TrEMBL record:
Species, as recorded: Eragrostis curvula
Gene3D superfamilies in alphabetical order: 3.90.70.80
Keywords assigned: Hydrolase, Ubl conjugation pathway
Top EC class for this record: hydrolase
Entry protein name: ubiquitinyl hydrolase 1
Hydrolase is among the record's keywords: yes
Amino acid sequence: MTTCRLKMTHRYPNESASSSSTSMSSQRSETDDDRMIAMVLTEEYAKLDGAMAKRLTNLTSIPHVPRINTYFPTYSDATMDHYRLLDRLNQYGLCEVRVSGDGNCQFRALSDQLYRSPEHHKHVRKEIVKQLKECKSLYEGYVPMKYKHYCKKMKKSGEWGDHVTLQAAADKFAAKICLLTSFRDTCFVEIVPQYQAPQREIWLSFWSEVHYNSLYDARGEKHIILLTICLWNTLKTLTWLPQAVQCPAF
């Protein structure tokens, strides 16, 4: 009988050591697969960012001035702003990854753009606060309170990010941050690193001074999902095929 069995029921000498070695080899293989997929997807996302930038080249961006949050809209104004933002997303073929509105939305949205997951928002906040502390002279003039108190406040989870933290994020991560806003007269805002050329682009939606989400090309996202599935299927097929061929006959 020549049927291959992936799960062995017989025991042989040194089976435990062999099993451990196989497990470690499998883990290394999966890690290598993950890295390869991450590299491919990073390249694809970079292409999509470029496509988004070309599509929005006709938009006039305004100079970004770092500032803390001082204005909060009424419910009526916020509702109108939300519809205006949705219209703009549809107009430019963009989709939002909606993040939790728990006070960490700016950091969650940045995390999603940087790491493809909003769950690393604590790390992002930590890095931004570190940037604020280490480069005090770059940001202190925009903060109308004791700077030490501002940094201590911004360190706390749930504290809203503002335009100062966005500038610090652009500087820290060497990124051009592109905001598609809900403002009536200001559709598009660009925040660029102050003393270095941007190495990447970060796309966020900004709704009525109260919420940030992560932005992607709606058409490109479908492409990325299909590409990810194809990569996984291909790698798993290549991983299992040699094992199936090498299975002993019983």
